[in-house]
Amino acid sequence: MSEPWFLLYVFLFLGAYGQDFIEYVIEGSSFWKWWYNQRMWMIRSLSSFAFATAECLLKSIGLSTYRFIVTSKVVDDEHYKRYSQGVLEFGVPSPLFVPPTTAAIINLFSFIWGAVIIFSGGRDVGESLVLQMLLAGCIELNCLPIYEAIALRSDHGKMSAKTTIIATFVAGALYAATSIISK
Question: How far apart are the first and last CA of the chain?
Fold first, then answer.
């Protein structure tokens, strides 16, 4: 943070988000619609974009890929009510929810561990840890719908236990793999 080039990165980061926000406001949208879009961008980039990239790579080398399957889009009153309130729907167990849930779990534990380090004063808390905590905090805000779907919701739109368990095991496996590699 003490380097003069740091201000350039701050300017670019705030400029990109600011430009996106201003475009939303000019088009007549609200802050909440913009924020909802930011959350959806994170979820889409970790789920459907990742699966589409993998499918494209598999198809390009001639391996079998998933086929497009038409699913029922019938919406009941409860689902429509959640949709109109801007509440994300995670009710159907799907492999598409595993990557964003895994990322959310890893980020949550990283944020908690960073807070423990900062408040315990066990290590020299430098500028880099503060910036990492700031970035992790922004990601935590974007992951709030996932945390809500895992732990706080009781309706049919909550995250399935199967998806949560698989994502937790994947997060644990990634942590174990990085621990082994870093030694």
Answer: 29
- Here the tokens at position 177 are 């793999």
Calpha distance 168→103 (Å, rounded)? 10
Give start and end residues of each alpha helix (H) in the chain: 6-26, 31-46, 48-60, 77-84, 98-120, 127-142, 144-147, 161-182
Separation of alpha carbons 58 and 28, rounded Å: 41
Encoding tokens for residue 130? 């503060």
Distance of CA 154 to the CA centre of its chain: 21
Please name the amino acid found at residue 52.
A
Inter-helix orientation angle 6-26/31-46, to 10°: 120
Per residue in 160-181, pLDDT (tens digit) is 888 899 999 999 999 999 888 8
Domain map (residue ranges) of the chain:
6-70+86-182
